[in-house]
Design goal:
mainly beta
């Protein structure tokens, strides 16, 4: 799930990335940080992995989730999907107002 929060005084959008998954760990991997995995925190009560990132507005950014260092997953609530060079799809979050 994606949640977006826009700021009146900044050209940024705070995006909360969430994935409900039975897993030991989940990382957010995205083009906005050079495709380096960012380990997500977990809310124990509902087993939701989450992280927040501030992104520039008026952009489309590709991302995926890496679950247990083994498998890739997309976000069901992504704004769109784009085919990647591995023949799969990446999720896309858009920060257009």
């Amino acid at each position: 799930m994606l949640r977006k929060k826009y700021f009146k005084t900044k050209d940024e959008c705070e995006v909360t990335f969430e994935l409900q998954k039975q897993a030991n760990k989940v990382a957010l991997v995205s083009e906005f940080n050079g495709w380096k995995p960012v380990e997500m925190k977990v809310r124990k009560k509902d087993k939701v992995f989450y992280t927040r990132m501030r992104l520039p507005i008026e952009r489309s950014v590709q991302f995926r989730y890496l679950v247990d260092d083994l498998r890739w997953e997309n976000d069901d609530s992504a704004d769109e999907y784009i085919r990647n060079e591995f023949g799969e799809e990446n999720s896309v979050v858009q920060t257009y107002r």
